Amino acid sequence: MALSLLYLLIISLSFSNLPSSSSSSSSSDNNNNNVNNAARTFIVQVQPSSKPSIFPTHQDWYSSSLSSLSSDKATAPTVLHTYSTVFHGFSAKLSPSQAQTLQSLDHVTAIIPEQVRQLHTTRSPEFLGLRSTDAAGTLLRESDFGSDLVIGVIDTGIWPERKSFHDRDLGPTPSKWKGQCVAGKDFPVTICNRKLIGARFFSAGFESTNGKMNETTEYRSPRDSDGHGTHTASIAAGRYVFPASTLGYAKGVAAGMAPKARLAAYKVCWSAGCYDSDILAAFDAAVADGCDVVSLSVGGVVVPYYLDAIAIGAYGASDAGVFVSASAGNGGPGGLTVTNVAPWVTTVGAGTIDRDFPADVKLGDGRTIPGMSIYSGPGLAPGRMYPLVYAGGVGGDSYSSSLCLEGSLSQVKGKIVVCDRGINSRAAKGDVVKKAGGVGMILANGVFDGEGLVADCHVLPATAVAASTGDEIRRYIATSKSKSPPTATIVFKGTRIRVRPAPVVASFSARGPNPESPEILKPDVIAPGLNILAAWPDKVGPSGVASDKRNTEFNILSGTSMACPHVSGLAALLKAAHPDWSPAAIRSALMTTAYTVDNRGETMLDGSSGNTSSVMDFGAGHVHPQKAMDPGLVYDIRSYDYVDFLCNSNYTTKNIQVVTRKFANCNGAKRAGHSGNLNYPSLSVVFQQYGKHKMSTHFIRTVTNVGTPNSVYQVTIKPAAGMTVTVEPEKLAFRRVGQKLSFLVRVQALAAKLSPGSTSVKSGSIVWSDGKHTVTSPLVVTMQQPL
Ligand SMILES: *[C@@H]1O[C@H](CO)[C@@H](O)[C@H](O)[C@H]1NC(C)=O
Ligand SMILES: *[C@@H]1O[C@H](CO)[C@@H](O)[C@H](O)[C@H]1NC(C)=O
Ligand SMILES: *[C@@H]1O[C@H](CO)[C@@H](O)[C@H](O)[C@H]1NC(C)=O
Fold first, then answer.
1. For ligand 2, atom 14: residue with the closest CA
2. 177, 235, 249, 526: which could form a disulfide with 349 (CB 3.0–4.6 Å)?
3. What's the rounded Cα separation, in Å, for the pair 192 and 196?
4. Ligand nearest to the CA of 218
5. pLDDT tens for residues 445-456?
6. Which of 561, 608, 684, 777 is catalytic?
7. Which of 57, 78, 113 is at the close of a domain?
8. Is 107 a catalytic residue?
9. How far does residue 425's CA lie from ligand 1's centre (Å)?
10. Is-catalytic flag, 144?
11. How many whole angstroms separate alpha carbon 271 and alpha carbon 349?
């Protein structure tokens, strides 16, 4: 129930954003009317072939359509961006009546209201098994470290002077490159090089809603004033930098996934977020410029694909052969939190690596509580115990957005303060405690945050503790007698490696089921996203707090934002090693070779609970680059397969056209089956359970041999509990490389014992093997008992 209700809620929310087209929705409430009449940005799709010949360019035509909306030329809306590669049309700020007028024109095929997106805020290459010293036949060698592949990073821009972006020893810019280095504030054209081969910025959408940007705090150029884009770009394709560390932590060699790949920065995120009209312009440019991979660590609310500028831009990219990876979001550990879920996007969740930064709390009663922190600087006096106070005052309310200490600022001088983690900046809370005279901070998770710990570059001695141990500390403070008031200290232990278990699914990593298409399992994979070391700009302290004046060349951040560019870099390596692979083939290789066991040999744990994680948390599993280079078989998908998928998802012809720019005849597709028949490397079915009868479905899949000629694959079925699964045929004999063979999977389930409104998720797998390759697909069966 939860699933379908939320699904409906999201859809109806998104529809309520559309310009009202029926009189019944007009409100008698004046205030409401005023809000509804406010102009906002829309992305307008047009039929490009309808352009009257009197207009020399599409831009002239669009401007003319807009000036006709207003009797006064001076107040007529203006074109913010024109789109011509992944989408045909333009964006503009329109009143609801202007939007309606445009929508009524024959050549206007869709009007999409803009959404604002948010950022989903190095030992990781070694953890993934990528070493520069490896012999021939390994992924880095075979791909020549990703040389001549271009990764477009749509983000907050870039700090080009970082060593991670030097171009020493790189060959000339690939000849196919058509992009530009766009100059701007503190960003001359000459700053691009053979590593950073392109840089652009898109701010018209942001500024049409927020007014002109504040140029003392933001650069009107591709330069990064936040740090996020510099960090993600260097994860994807930073070159080798030694020595690298943040404040002495995580010392070693820093390297991106594809150290020789070229980078193009597309800055779309500004102080107020990332605006759809700017994001779509970045997709349009990235594909026209010649990017091979687009990396997007940004997301928002899930809406149907025809209202989702990221899904639309990503479709156009995928249609042009460009691989798109996107972060799953940080809304975990709850279900249905995954974002960027379109089946033509590779959706990446976050896991831990085998490195952490222990910083334990010692309590006055002798107990030691494990914590996690990256703090360096004047410390607490060794051996001394400090008075301990709890400032939360909200009983561990994990949704609290208070900055800690409100109203009790005078009582913390010389003390260590326990704050609830809450939903806002963790480092900012330390800043508040420091300014109030506190000597240290313990940031305790609430129930919602669970047991997962994130290390931060705090501005004072501070550490993070789990919900359960946070409660122990809160209880210790509450029950300490006046004779022995509570005391504590924090012991920083530096960097620890070869941590077990790893990987663990990060507690914040967003989870399935997929709220828009439950028959497509999302996230697709997980990759390193906790405590990741990567490049960082000047002028932004590592804590991100305004008062933090420390400068570091590298910083350690966590988020699915950090996981996504790992996969973007790997996709570049795979495409370099296999130039003929489609984006879907690359994703298939990453998914069917992913692993689900940790370095203890047991199923990966979920960081939020410490319990075993599931397919809803990790999708196909954790990426294994070396195996992905040689997957044996791939599940390929072409653009027309996605059209069939949209038909079978009951999208209208008109809505399909918004995404695909093509007229779709759905009659054939509907005869061919259901949306679960998209040739995806995972299989997922949702059964609505009525009564006690058996439920059954079938999937058709086609695999392409990308291994060796004359190979024979045999299937192994691991059914989920309580169901029967058969595969026909059970043997696939390939004569040639490139040959495709199909098989049929039948799934039969008996009704489960479910109370009305509840859901059960069971998973198994289908594995094809020729003795050398193992090609694994998760098979997920969700049963819902309607209310
Ligand atoms: C721009 O930001 C600076 C620094 O925060 C602030 O002092 C100034 O008032 C801002 N200017 C405008 C026009 O908002
Ligand atoms: C973790 O497992 C324990 C024992 O099976 C169970 O009681 C608990 O509810 C689980 N926690 C979560 C968050 O699923
Ligand atoms: C599409 O509509 C058909 C007919 O109403 C229904 O059986 C099917 O389940 C729908 N599919 C999806 C994915 O909603």
1. 609
2. 526
3. 5
4. 1
5. 888 778 888 888
6. 561
7. 113
8. no
9. 21
10. no
11. 25
Same domain, 272 and 129: yes
155 is catalytic: yes
Verify that 568 and 582 share a domain, yes or no. Answer: yes
Which amino acid, 249? Y
Ligand 2 atom nearest residue 450's Cα: 13
For ligand 2, the distance from its centroid to the CA atom of residue 332, given in whole angstroms, is: 16
| Ligand minimally distant from the alpha carbon of residue 468 | 2
Q: Which residue's CA is minimally distant from atom 14 of ligand 3?
A: 649
Same-domain pairing of 486 and 541:
no
Cα separation, 350 vs 562, in Å, equals 8
| Res 401 pLDDT > 70 | no
- pLDDT value for 121: 66
Atom of ligand 3 nearest to the CA of 649: 13
Identity of the residue numbered 378? P
Name the catalytic one among 58, 88, 166, 228. 228
Counting atoms of ligand 1 from 1, which one is nearest the CA of 217?
2
Question: 612 alpha carbon to ligand 2 midpoint, in Å?
Answer: 9
Cβ atoms 542, 457 nearer than 8 A: yes
CA atoms of 720 and 144, how far apart (whole Å): 41
Task: Compute the distance between CA of residue 332 and CA of residue 247 in angstroms, rounded to an integer.
Answer: 29
Average the pLDDT over 196-213 and give the result. Answer: 97
Domain that includes residue 88, residue range: 40-113
Q: How confident is the model at residue 397 (pLDDT cuts 50, 70, 90)?
A: very low
CA of 538 to the centre of ligand 1 (A): 20
Return the residue whose CA atom lies nearest to atom 4 of ligand 3. Answer: 650
658 occurs within a structural domain: no
450: CA distance to ligand 2 center in Å?
A: 12
Of 207, 210, 213, 214, best ligand 1 pocket probe by most atoms within 8 Å of the beta carbon:
214
Residue 415 shares a structural domain with residue 476: yes
List pLDDT tens digits, range 590-641: 999 999 999 999 999 999 999 999 999 999 999 999 999 999 999 999 999 9
Contact 766, 777 (CB under 8 A): yes
Q: Is 618 left (phi over 0), alpha (psi -120 to 50) or beta?
A: alpha
160 and 301 housed in the same domain: yes
- Can you list the pairs that 367-372 forms with residues at least 24 positions away whose Cβ atoms lie under 8 Å? 367/472, 367/476, 369/465, 369/469, 369/472, 369/473, 370/465, 370/466, 370/469, 371/442, 371/453, 371/463, 371/464, 371/465, 371/490, 372/453, 372/454, 372/455, 372/463, 372/464
Out of 113, 136, 156, a domain closes at 113
Distance CA 361, CA 21 (A): 59
Ligand 2 atom at minimal distance to the Cα of residue 611? 1
35 within a domain of the structure (yes/no): no
Question: Domain containing 743 — which CATH number?
Answer: 2.60.40.2310
What pLDDT is attached to residue 71?
Answer: 82
Residue nearest to ligand 2 atom 6, measured at CA = 611
Q: Let me know if residue 192 belongs to a domain.
A: yes
Indicate whether 134 and 254 sit together in one domain: yes
CATH code of the domain covering residue 448: 3.50.30.30
The answer on 419 and 321 residing in a single domain is no
Number of domains in the chain: 4
Supply the CATH number for residue 555's domain: 3.40.50.200
Percentage, residues of the chain above pLDDT 90:
68
> Element (H or E) spanning 375, and its range?
none
Q: Which residue has the higher pLDDT, 8 or 262?
A: 262
Does a structural domain hold residue 5?
Answer: no
Q: How far away, in angstroms, is 214 Cα from ligand 1 center?
A: 6
**Nearest CA among 621, 604, 623 for reference residue 613:** 604
Residues with CB under 6 A from ligand 3: 649-650, 675
Tell whether 347 and 368 lie within a shared domain: no
